[in-house]
Write a structure and sequence with these properties.
Number of strands: 2
CATH class: Mainly Alpha
Number of domains: 1
InterPro entries: WH-like_DNA-bd_sf, WH_DNA-bd_sf
Largest sheet: 2 strands, antiparallel
Structural class: mainly alpha
Amino acid sequence: MEFVDLIEIRELVQYQHVVAAVACLGERPMRYGELGTAISEWTGSRIADGELTRTVRRLEAGGLAEVVPGNDGHRLLKLTPEGHNRRKKAAALGKVLRDWTGDQAERETDQ
């Protein structure tokens, strides 16, 4: 493993609500309030309004999401291509971890 790999992993998982928002917005663009509800459902705990605001700012500052007009005049948050890329990387990392954990459990039962 290279040091840059660790930096990239940290970027993927540094803020749990950013990871959750990227996962949720990967399903479809959402209004601000919808995103808060989706994050709360995805994580199993309510996200505070201030944390949601910080999360949205981090998404925009990181180039992961952008605000676009919705059909009904409301503004929507939508993943950018970089956001979709981040989602794919996080999903791949999650799969590797689940596979590795499963392999570890199999080794323990074989002993």
